[in-house]
Amino acid sequence: MFTFFWMTLLFFLWGSTKNTVESALGRPICSGGYCITLNEGEITTEAGLCVVIPCFFTMADGFTPKAIVWFKCEPWRRRCGDSDIVFHTNHDKVPSEFLGRVLLLDPDVSQGNCSIMINDLNTSDSGSYQLRVNGFYQGMADGLTFPSRTSLSVKGLYQRPTVMVPPLTEGQQATLTCTAPGLCSGSPPTITWMWRGKTEDYHVTGSTSALKTDNLTAVTQRHSSTLTFKPSAKHHNTNVICKVSFPGNITTEESVSLNISLLAKILNGSGCVQHAEVLTCVCISEGFPSPTITWPLLKDHTEYSVFNIVSNHTVNSTLSLRNPGNISVECFSNNENWEVKENLMVRRELSEEADHEKHVSVFGVLPWVIAGVSLCVHVFCMIYIWHLWNTRKKKKLTEDQTYVSLQKRDTSSEYDVIVQRPR
Would you say residue 417 has pLDDT above 50? Predict the structure, then answer.
């Protein structure tokens, strides 16, 4: 029963880690009562992940197993040596590069399960793996190295993370989940989230859980990360990236496009103009999926036309209505996520007849205005000219008086005395 449990676990691990096994476990290979069952084909896996090498053994009567030893060496070598140890029940004999990275699935050696899991794989782990069982035979220390081997090939990592995206609606909090490939109990990977811009990638803004580990069994773990954010219109049709980094500078990533259900909204630029007996209204609405626009007032009218233009996620609806009367206009927009309505402002323009009368009135008054202004200008000019003439006349009179004064002879007696000469 216990053996059946481990067989089930092994097949579960193969399927979960997506390792390619060319054939299932073959029949036991026996010699002198000692039997081993290994995978008959090459086990192919990927760097950064983990792999299970399935193995079962039975020993001859009288042999009590106490320790498991695994070696890795080149296929052409007949027997691996102590320098090739990758696992030993006595951990002191394991090189540091394998210590803790190679695990025995069932530590109870007496059960005959020699299966191992190798974590944090790299291409150097490729090779031929050979088993040795140490113990006591009839009370004396003994051991057996099985000649049969299993081959492991580690390729570059091609698996990508799995990103789960729930339905996204604008303004409603959502959580994305990224699960790293592999079900390994080795070193946990580093998981990061990024937005992909037009020219570069940049880290997301939002609440992230860097790593979450779920223990599926004693030797299997699933690693994941979550991103919680509130979607908006700017996230629509953008890409979000989940990047997983394993030890040894091994990375993989997955990019998903986000489709955000945008709430229907009525945009600026919507409104109405009434000219004479015709009312023209424009309602512009945006949303994803594209919204539909309806005009509730049309149920009470028959003389109208409606013309819609759809561009990307924007709908432009134009309504022409004859003889509207004194009404209010409501635009109703909805998509499968949201519905919105708005009363549009109506701007009334003058009719052509009223407009003509306005122009006639203006042009009738204009000549009188021009005549008045012209008369004022003429009067001002006449006054100014008269002022200049009068000023020049006074100035000339003053100059003439001064000249006459200078030419007149002074005959006063005072001057006669001064100029008298002695005889």
Answer: no
CB 53 within 8 A of CB 39: yes
What is the third-level CATH fold of 2-155? Immunoglobulin-like (2.60.40)
For residues 132 and 69, the answer to whether their CB atoms sit within 8 Å is yes
For the chain, the structural domain boundaries read 2-155, 162-258, 263-349
Helix, strand counts (H, E) of the chain: 3, 30
- Exposed / middle / buried, residue 268 (Cβ in 10 Å: 0-12, 13-18, 19+): exposed
| Contact present, 162 and 55 (Cβ < 8 Å) | no
Let me know if the fold of 2-155 is the same as that of 263-349: yes
> Residue 326, class by beta-carbon neighbours within 10 Å (0-12 exposed, 13-18 middle, 19+ buried)?
exposed
Q: How far apart are CA 242 and CA 379, in angstroms?
A: 89
Give the residue from 267, 273, 268 showing the smallest Cα distance to 321: 273
Integer Cα distance of 423 and 421 in angstroms:
7
336-361 per-residue burial string, b: 16 or more CB within 10 A, e: under 16? ebbebebebebeeeeeeeeeeeeeee
Confidence band of 338 (pLDDT split at 50, 70, 90): confident
Distance CA 329, CA 283 (A): 10
Q: Tell me which DSSP letter residue 25 carries.
A: B
Tell me the two tokens of residue 116: 């191992």
The dihedral sign for the CA sequence 194, 177, 120, 214: positive
**Is the peptide bond between 231 and the residue preceding it cis, with omega within 30 degrees of 0?**
no
Percent of the chain past pLDDT 90, that is, above it, reads 48
C-alpha gyration radius of the chain: 51
For range 235-249, the mean pLDDT? 91
User: What are 393's two structure tokens?
Assistant: 């006349």
Q: What pLDDT is recorded for position 15?
A: 39
Task: Count other C-beta atoms under 10 Å from residue 209's C-beta.
Answer: 14
Distance from chain centroid for Cα 265 = 22
What would the CATH number be for the domain defined by 263-349? 2.60.40.10
Query: Tokens at residue 384, please?
Result: 């100014």
Question: pLDDT category, 39, cuts 50, 70, 90?
Answer: confident
Checking if the pLDDT of 24 tops 80, the result is no
**Nearest residue to 346 via CA among 278, 266, 265:** 278
Whether domain 162-258 has CATH 2.60.40.10: the reply is yes
Alpha-carbon distance of 245 to 192, in angstroms, equals 8
Hey, what amino acid is at 306? Answer: V
Question: What is the distance between the alpha carbons of residues 266 and 421, in angstroms, rounded to a whole number?
Answer: 121
Q: Position 187: which residue type?
A: S
